[in-house]
Write a structure and sequence with these properties.
Blueprint lengths: L6 H6 L3 H8 L3 H16 L5 H25 L1 H25 L2 H31 L7 H32 L1
Helix pairs in contact: 2-3, 2-5, 3-4, 6-7
């Protein structure tokens, strides 16, 4: 279980600000801070699992304790919520300012590789059979292009998924 997984249970317990903070862009980074306050109030270890279990089984008593934590440190939680909103706005502004090329080159190259494969393995055999016209590219080159692109695109996403949390923690 992750800290972000507690967003819905916290909101259901009446702590909508805490749910927003945990479920927002700062969720993982402030999870320990929020978790410590919640764990102390609920009398459980400050882990997402323990707090989630306490919220699920604690009933109205757990909801009241969580609401008390939210009320007691309302200014701090509001500041964190505002910081998360600013972060989201900054990311949205950056995405808009970079223009279409910042995101369009990957899908464009994926479609190009798909077109090369389709042309070589689907169109070329029909053109050769019907019109005796060869429009194929050498198979080894097609497979090489596809392999390079899959390594860059798929491998990059895999590295980001595997090493991203580790690199983020090292900052």
């Amino acid at each position: 279980m992750r800290w972000q997984d507690l967003a819905s249970p916290l909101a259901q317990a009446g702590a909508t600000v805490l749910g927003t903070i945990i479920g927002g862009p700062l969720g993982a980074s402030v999870g320990g801070l929020v978790g410590q306050a919640l764990g102390t109030a609920l009398g459980v270890p400050a882990t997402p699992e323990a707090i989630g279990t306490a919220l699920a089984t604690g009933g109205d008593d757990a909801a009241q304790r969580v609401q008390a934590v939210e009320t007691a440190r309302a200014d701090e939680w509001a500041a964190l919520a505002e910081q998360g909103a600013r972060l989201m706005q900054t990311l949205a502004d950056k995405e808009v300012s970079e223009g279409w090329f910042a995101w369009a080159w990957r899908p464009a190259l994926s479609w190009l590789v798909t077109a090369i494969i389709a042309q070589t393995f689907l169109v070329a055999p029909w053109a050769r059979a019907i019109a005796h016209f060869d429009v194929s590219a050498p198979y080894d080159q097609v497979m090489g292009i596809a392999a390079i692109w899959l390594t860059i695109y798929g491998g990059g996403h895999t590295l980001k998924a595997v090493l991203g949390p580790r690199l983020g923690a090292a900052k």
